[in-house]
User: Fold Biotin transporter BioY from Brevibacillus invocatus.
Amino acid sequence: MRHKPQTRSKILNADHGVDFVGDVHGCFDEFMELLRLLGYERGSDGTYRHPQGRKLLSLGDITSRGPASIKMLQFFIRHIASGAAEMVDSNHGWKIARWLDGRPVTLAHGDEKVDEEFRRFQQEFGPKKTSLLKEQSRRLLFSSPSHMMVRQNDKLVAVAVHAGIRDDYIGMESPAVHTFCRYGDVAGTGPDGRPIRKDWAKERKLKEPLIVWGHDPRPQPERLNGTLNIDQGCVFGGMLTAYRFPEDELVSVPARKNYSGLQDTPLTRYGTE
Assistant:
């Protein structure tokens, strides 16, 4: 177990606009298509930036299940270092971070594909470059904040989080906060092995700030009690969605295929359970 890097700041300035992006899960081609639709342009240094100075903000789960986890890791390593993007912690990100740290974790539910990608990467580029990329990825994932408080004109206007957050947890740090942000409000496991999730958004009493989240795929973006779900299950054959703030606009691109290898997906189960 190596030194755990310091968590990055959980405050993001939105004065020039922010583009929240839902769960990518290694769908790099769709991600790049979405960036172009949002107006990001590739500079001479290979970094994608918006001409108006907008920031890209990922809701996590950039890896696993899909075909190009390493490309997604490389993208955010570069873009967070350059200040062009940010990302919050997530359940798959936390699992991959611990695996990269040498901890005894079981890679399943698509996380094993990340291991396969790194094995192929080492065959092509050798152990030295692979070790460097693994360390950069470990630091990226471990340093991601549990949630991101988005401020405009010194006012808290939105919160980016992977799976959900209680209003009294906003701005706080504790094991309970991190767990809620990664997994949502989980009340045990059902007989089929799937987590039993409470509908935290339905139970929310406040309407501000806006909470933008993913993790639990819905066929369409879903607004409820001042929350907005933008995980449309791209890796399952759905869509990859971005939310443009302060414009209050949704931009989506369709998945090119169902990359997960599953027929019974969260999208097919939605509304039938």
Observations:
- The chain has one domain: 11-270.
- Residues 157 and 209 are 5 Å apart (CA to CA).
